[in-house]
User: What shape does this take?
Amino acid sequence: MSEEGNLLSIFEAHRGKLSDKWSSYLSLYDHAFRPYRDRKISLLEIGIQNGGSLEIYAKYFANFEHIVGCDIEQRCALLRYGERIDVVTGDCNEASTKRAIACICAEFDIIIDDGSHVSGDIIRAFLNYFPLLKPGGIFVVEDLHCSYWQNWGGGLYRDVSSISFLKMLVDVVNHEHWGNGEKRREPIDRRFPGILPNDAEALLSEIHSVQFHNSICIISKALPPQNALGLRLVAGTEALIDEGPRLSGGASSDESDQSANPQAFFRDIKAENEVLHKMIVERDAQLVSLNNLLVDRNSETQTLNNSLAEQRMVCRALHVALAAAPPIRVHWLERLLWRTTLGRRLCRILFIRGQAQLLEDYRLVLGSGQFDLLHYIKYNQDALHEIPDPILHYLMVGYREGRDPSPLFSSRKYISEHGMVGDINPLVHHIRSTMK
Assistant: This one.
């Protein structure tokens, strides 16, 4: 018989090699291990440190057949025990270490992983040693709080932590209800590519239950037929509310086909997000290109607006000139046709009689391109109220007052340099002299 008392009392009375456990573990283990307590069990503990836990389990399971401890610390080989307790040193996930353990005991009723607590090591240890667990046995993973810590490869939202892996085993237990045609291993393969062995489907089919407690997960093993939901049993004969249960007696689970359920199929959110991000980047680039094009168009529009404003100013000046100029005979129109459609339209309403030379000079100056209307208007606004047309004003009185037709032409300087006397317009003289 086992030593009297529960696991906690045995732990508290222990005086041998050092062992440390969280208090909640002892009460949980006492409940989980009770069905095995008087059996000839084999137990494997991964991570034994000072080795005291092996002595405590030997007291609790008095009829044990084998207790094996494994630790990566080579000094654990110095630990000495009585019969049927063995220690293997080495990395439990190395093939040589696993072979050494299997040589001592090929199958175990209880396996406890209290090793490195690193997420990757926990997952590999489960995949390596769950096959060594007997049907009806339990696999215990301790200290899963480390799966939420960065230094142990964890984090609450880290989808490849050990706790994330173990949570996926809950879905494996309910595989028959997925209804999407996927194998048990497929969701795990997507999240943990390359980690499952070739025979993983058979391994996963033997998971009977998954229990979670604070920092502990207990996975039980059973043969596949025992892991199915089974047939629907019906007891009693009166069905006053619903006849359904009586009619479905002996049936298996229904609604297994979920081919029409979009939520039953995997969506690669990460890949979808990458596609969406790429689309957003491309759209942003298009927006930048369109914005640059808009800036260019706005600049062109502004240039056209400025040009239009200048043309309107010229037109206003011409209209004023036409209204103020003395009339001449219509046959002069042919000599006044301008190069633009606007000019031709203005000429058709120019019914001027007399002042032929003035009109000829006007045409000459206007067509030369050497008269800057805006310049003349800007610097001679004080004089344009009497003769509003800039060219007409210059031809009639402006040159006499020393006014300049453009920034590039000085009336006074030209008259002085050419010794001009009498009523000769310097700009007209200059234009005619360059035409000879």
Notes: Confidence is low (pLDDT under 50) at residues 325-354. The radius of gyration is 51 Å.
